[in-house]
Protein: UDP-glucose 6-dehydrogenase
Amino acid sequence: MNVVVIGTGYVGLVTGTCLADSGNDVTCVDIDAGKVERLKNGEIPIYEPGLEDMVRRNSAAGRLSFTTQPSACVPGAECVFIAVGTPQDEDGSADLKYVMGAAEAVAPYLRKNAIVIIKSTVPVGTNRLVKRRLDELTGRDVHIASNPEFLKEGCAIDDFMRPDRVVVGSIDPDVAETVHELYKPFLRTEKPFLKMGLESAEMTKYVANCMLATKISFINEMANLCELVGADINDVRRGIGHDQRIGFAFLFPGVGYGGSCFPKDVRALRATGKELGFETSVLHAVDDVNTRQKLVLFNKLARHFKNDLAGKKIAVWGLSFKPKTDDIRDAPSLELLRKLIAAGANVHVHDPVAVPNVQRVIGDAVTYHSHQYDTLEQAEALAIVTEWNEYRNPDFDYILHKMKSPVIFDGRNLYDLNRMTKLGFTYSGIGVTR
Ligand SMILES: NC(=O)C1=CN([C@@H]2O[C@H](COP(=O)(O)OP(=O)(O)OC[C@H]3O[C@@H](n4cnc5c(N)ncnc54)[C@H](O)[C@@H]3O)[C@@H](O)[C@H]2O)C=CC1
Ligand SMILES: O=C(O)[C@H]1O[C@H](OP(=O)(O)OP(=O)(O)OC[C@H]2O[C@@H](n3ccc(=O)[nH]c3=O)[C@H](O)[C@@H]2O)[C@H](O)[C@@H](O)[C@@H]1O
Structure:
């Protein structure tokens, strides 16, 4: 099929590349000329394992190309995906200016019977709003489909190629069937293609993200309570997870969820409720718990140093909002760094890939290191924010020898409390402490 994807961010680039990989002719469009230039040279602007190779391979095969001009590709397209950002507006609701802008940019070039597929996460009602605008601009009854994306950064290609399900909302069932053709190569096992109405598809995306965010805030609240009652959340997690009704997924306690989606999507769904005079109390609590959880490492450090962090050398491992990405949008690390800087601490940080992004936001108020151990020279405490694999099994003897005082605040429960205590560390995890 001839496909156009508008937006070459995490979602657009992965969608376009994976669809090209299954034999479609794909053109990706972005308004950012610099990004398009880099992509044309086979350079990808984000860190996503495996993506660069796939972009190069499919570009070389002539199935994947990049442009800034919708006029150059939309006229030939049977399907036009819109995968632009939907950031949080000041009141928490989703800002639709990029989605509407993209729709308006493609409208003049849409061929008869082309399908516009909205992949961006958009509030209920947006697909109909976009359709109305497209109908107005083209003078035709434009086909529209809502196709929310469920991929995770860091394993985006695998998630796209092996989805748990594909959701498509449409007015006309034939439109959904055409979209199904695009997805059939990725749904060869028992995984379902779920057809539904536009509103249900839009809502499905928010409910999925809010459910996952709820699980995380719930387990974080329980972890904090475990510390107070002297229980170990790792044992409790296993104790509940074996109950098949509960399970293990997304119940790892930590420093709060970050990233470009959970925080904004929880707030956007709250805003939808508010607009309709409906109080979403659970979502309010989820957001509230998460805001507090992002401060959990700072509060532990402040308590340990009796509220005097001035001049204390603190090492921080992990800056991206989760491993295998350089994305720092709403990352808990930023909250920690800002609080430590404000308290006058001498902060030394490491991250395998996110340092350039953090440098752009935090500047030289902290010291960046290219090796994790270099942060520890005479450090008085180590805070672990992101569970990169290389932090899981470090040389603890070396760390003991390097640090001024062997104190670890582990925001991801990478280590075992008893082992750490035996080794001579003062150690505190999330929901695991002495
Ligand atoms: N990042 C993720 O893991 C996931 C994101 N989503 C949703 O997908 C959407 C896109 O997210 P990301 O890919 O992270 O966004 P992003 O911010 O990384 O990329 C968006 C891209 O769209 C481009 N753009 C904006 N207006 C344009 C226009 N008129 N024409 C052409 N290009 C335009 C921007 O220059 C940018 O390159 C959002 O609604 C997000 O909530 C859904 C699932 C996963
Ligand atoms: O809409 C989106 O953008 C995407 O949002 C999330 O994907 P992503 O944000 O890439 O990353 P996750 O792996 O879900 O992690 C989100 C945050 O939750 C935290 N988390 C996750 C799992 C867990 O058990 N505990 C926990 O604290 C992570 O550290 C991270 O900060 C969803 O998992 C995707 O399905 C969805 O498509």
Summary: The CA atoms of residues 29 and 67 lie 5 Å apart. The chain is about 40% helix and 15% strand. The pocket of NAI (ligand 1) is lined by residues 6-12, 29-32, 35, 83-86, 98, 101-102, 105, 120-121, 149, 151, 153, 260-261 (CB under 6 Å). The chain has three domains: 2-196, 206-292, 294-428.
